[in-house]
Amino acid sequence: MSLVPSLPERLSRARSDLRMGLPVILVGEGGAALAAAAETLGAERLADLRALGAPVLAITRRRADTLRARAYSAHVARVVLPDAADVGWIRAVADPADDLKVPLKGPLETGRGGDESLARTAVALAKSARLLPAMVLVPLADGTVLSEHTGLTRLPAAAVDALMGDVPDVAEAIAARLPVEASERARLRVFRPGDGGEEHYAVEIGRPSRDRPVLARLHSACFTGDVLGSLKCDCGPQLRAALAQMGAEGEGVLLYLNQEGRGIGLANKMRAYSLQDQGFDTVEANHRLGFEDDERDFRIGAEMLRGMGFARVRLLTNNPAKVERLSACGIEVVERVPLKVGETRFNHHYLATKAKKSGHLL
Ligand SMILES: Nc1nc2c(ncn2[C@@H]2O[C@H](COP(=O)(O)OP(=O)(O)OP(=O)(O)O)[C@@H](O)[C@H]2O)c(=O)[nH]1
Ligand SMILES: [Zn+2]
């Protein structure tokens, strides 16, 4: 019956639930768990979770390493919640903001052995909801009764893992002419993914031939740089220089991908900036938060290019990994076109770190 929400629809709903502080029910092979995001869980709900069982706090291996907690796994650590732990304690483990002020959170007792798959799925779900990657889990026998009783979203974990690994279908919702400074012959196309995720945009300059490699830029959203003119990065100048070059050549395509903060979301990027003010570099800040250096997925960008009929590109970037990742998605990068603009005294260290640690070309 089409009125029953499908699994992708329930997954999309689960992301909103977690952002609002509602737990979701994850069902695995050997049992189920109630899972709530550490960032948004309130005191009353924590008390209700405790009434159902003994909670653990699942964090990433990266965050566990910072906290010197034993992960016993390459991916996640399951921190046992002490009886006295309140939401403030949970947030202090999840969020590195006060690590330096209050260095010792532990010693933290962590779970070893048993099935960690629900903890992994839960943390991946938190990341995809652009929350801190830390989830409180309480084991349940199967979760069916609780779900029927409460209306909480219930999801089979294996199917969630598979879905989150897939590239969602992405369809053009609308396109219209949009004269811009760089070119009067520009069109903006809005693409909408089928999984309820962020919309992404394509700016097409001129009418690029589909038979020749097109001058292309995959630009990741940077609200601070693109809109506010932040001096901490080079995104704003790169965005404008890319469009200007396309305008000068008379054609090109710029994808504006809503993968703010290299895929961690604006709130987490601001957490990273706050850590950078404490002396950590851009990569260390991501790791302390529990993220990888770069959490972006360029497969959706590749789908958008293909959808518009572009199979070969001259890619404007200083990031060789981006060339590799796009090529791996079946888009032929015939040339890497450097895009070196916007160095300031505020972003010099950031650019040098990207060159040293992430392989960007200076
Ligand atoms: N997490 C995090 N994201 C950042 C930071 N500074 C900028 N960003 C984001 O980084 C993305 C831009 O990626 P960059 O690594 O600068 O560049 P790139 O896309 O890999 O490479 P280029 O094609 O050469 O620009 C945007 O989404 C920005 O919001 C930071 O300190 N931390
Ligand atoms: Zn930026």
What characteristics describe this protein?
alpha/beta; Rossmann fold; binds guanosine-5'-triphosphate; seven-stranded mixed β-sheet; 2 domains; 38% helix; binds zinc ion; 13 strands; DHBP synthase; 362 residues
Description:
- The structure is a single chain.
- The mean pLDDT is 94.
- The protein has 15 helices and 13 strands.
- The protein is an alpha/beta fold and 362 residues long.
- It has two domains: 158 residues, Alpha-Beta Complex (DHBP synthase), CATH 3.90.870.10; 153 residues, Rossmann fold (3-Layer(aba) Sandwich).
- The N and C termini lie far apart (56 Å).
- It is 38% helix and 21% strand.
- The chain has a seven-stranded mixed beta sheet with strand order 7-8-9-11-10-12-13, sandwiched between helices. A six-stranded mixed beta sheet has the order 4-3-5-2-1-6, sandwiched between helices.
- Guanosine-5'-triphosphate binds next to helix 9, helix 10, helix 11 and helix 12.
